Structure formats: C-alpha cells, structure tokens
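Hello forum,

I keep getting stuck at the same step: I have a sequence, I want structure tokens, and every attempt I make locally crashes halfway through. Rather than fight my setup again tonight, could one of you with a working pipeline run this one for me? It's a single chain of 366 residues.
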Amino acid sequence: MDDQPQKSGGGFLISVVLILVLFTIFLLPDLGQEFSFPVPRLPDLGTGNIKSAIATPLLQLSFTYIGANEYIGSTNVRDQASSVLENDVLTLLVLGVAGEGHISPYLTDSILVMRLDLSQGKAVAISLPRDLLVQIPESKSYTKINALYRIGLDHNGSGAASFIKDKAEDIVGFSLTRIIILDLASFEQVVDALGGVTIYVEEDINDTRFPTPEGAYTTFRVEQGWQHLDGKTASQYIRTRHTPKGDIERIGRQQRMAHAIRNKISGLHPLFDLKTIFSVLESFKGGLKTNLTPEEITYLWTRQRDFSEKDLVFRSIDAFEKDSLLVSSSEILGGERASVLIPRAGVENYTEIQEFIKNLIENNQR
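Reply #2:
Ran it on my machine without issues. Output:
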C-alpha cells in the first residue's frame, strides 16, 4: 500500500468545510470557550453557546449566497440531518471538477472519500484514482470512474451525483451521506483571493503535455523547493499527471495544497482581512455544491477542535507498489484503447479494498 509518510490531516479536514463557515469563524470570536452561557438551544446543535445560536442563520445566508444550498441528488437531506448528528459519524464524498470553460468540464479528476468519527475525534480519508475501471450503474458498459458524474448529468439531471456516489459506496463498503463538489475556477479564484499560496515542491515538474481548456497541450514547469503559486499555477500543480507515479503523486500534491490553503485562511485577521475573507467567499459563488446542512457545518466546526493530526489518516488506493490493491491494464473505451486501473482481485471485485479500508478505520479508532 501507499507507504509514503502520513500527511497532516487537520488542514485538509478544515479546508473541506471551512469556506462554508467563514462568517462563523471570522466574524464571531470563539466566545464559547471563555464566555459560555445558556441560550435557547437550536435543533441539531451539540452546544449551547452564543456562537452556535448566531451561526446557523449566517451559515444559511452563506449557503444561499454562494449557491451551495442547491442540494445534490437528495430529496430528504433535512430528514437525514438529525440522524447524522446523533450518530456522531459523518461520511463525505468530495469531488473536484474542471468546470465550465474546459473541454471536459464534468470529469471528476479528484475523488476523495472521508469518514469522520466525531465522537472520538478521528477521521480516515481515502483517495480513489480517476482511472479506476468501473461498470456504469444501470448499464453493462464500463468506463473510468471519473466519467460517472458526467454520465449522471446526462442520465439523471438533478440526481447526477448518484452514479458516482453509488459506485464509491460499492468500492469502500459503506454509505456516503454527504457530497461536496467544487469546480476548478472557484479553486483558482480562492487562491488568487488569498494572494497566492506558498508550498514546498518535492521535485522538479516538467509536464510537456499539460492539457489546456481548449483540448490542446502546453508545458507546465515548476522547480523543486519553496514556491509561491498563484491560482492558475496552483491548479496546474494539483492537476498535472505526467510524473513517475501519475495519479498517486497528484493526490499527494492535492493534499499538500489543501493544507497550505488552510494555513493561509487560518492566518487571516477577523477585522483587518475582511476584504480578503469576502473575496474568498465570493470566489465560491456558484462553484460549490453540497448537501451538507448549515447545522452540520456548525457542528463540524465545534467538534473539529477534538481532532489531532495523529488521528487523521490519509491513504490512496494505488497501483504502483508490490502490495498495491490495483493493477494497470488497458481497455477499449469509446472506441479507443485507454490505460485503466483495476482491482488486483478482478474487475468490480472490491473485497480487498473494502477489507483494507475496514482495517484502516478499526486501527484508527484504537
């Protein structure tokens, strides 16, 4: 399996949900720790301080403003909310798409499954490679997993995420109750709104076949060492695949980038950096979709303090080590031969992957 050093998880957890609670984090001091006192308790909230009492309407305003309350593939998300909070376990499917203006706007080139055990302050995140060969739900045909969201759009409209959600559940072996979809344009705008991010590049990257939005190729280069990246360069850094380990190295770059963004956001001052804070919020307008509720976001924020880095585990399902659970292969897809990854146990046989994830979760909970 992936024997790279364990990545710092706190930054990624917060970066996944932090933008949705900007008003809560920055405009309201953390009064609960010093001046907690009883207030009327809001539904689904596990705390009774004034910050929680004010947070929900502000979060709902934020959801409405950036369009994140256009819930994805679910008609009963509100009914599910209380059970998620009562069980203290939240499962997420996080997808990254290129977005409008790109030749393949709805391919999910970033696929992350997260399981948060809020009662124990522990989390496991699993990255799935975009080239994994899967059977299309309700069909006998096969495709790469990153095409399922696009296929779902054509097939199911408002329920577009159901295809990739159902397949991800088959792979990991547990249900995924919440989805987050973020497009590339929003990501670039967030980085630019923050004034760029500084990140350590572990080795020189020289990708002469980096795809352009028009379907052509350009060259992307970045040198080893500390580099300050603007939005466009940051998106190229997390998307380039032409390195020795392809998708697996790309997933690692995405995790490092998420941590760098979290650090940048955490360094903002609640008063002096208000312009930047609102610029970041504006960057997500229309580019973020989720079926997380404001109540759940508030609850996540109040509980994330319980997490320590040693209890946040990130792993990638890969095909590049002798004990990897995936192997390289090739298939005819769309009339052309394509490189794909398949489970070493066989196509659509996810038993070994599920057992690996089950053991990862059990070890994390000890």
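Residues 10-185+267-364 form a domain with the Nucleotidyltransferase; domain 5 fold (CATH 3.30.420.590). If your local run keeps crashing, start a new thread with the error log.
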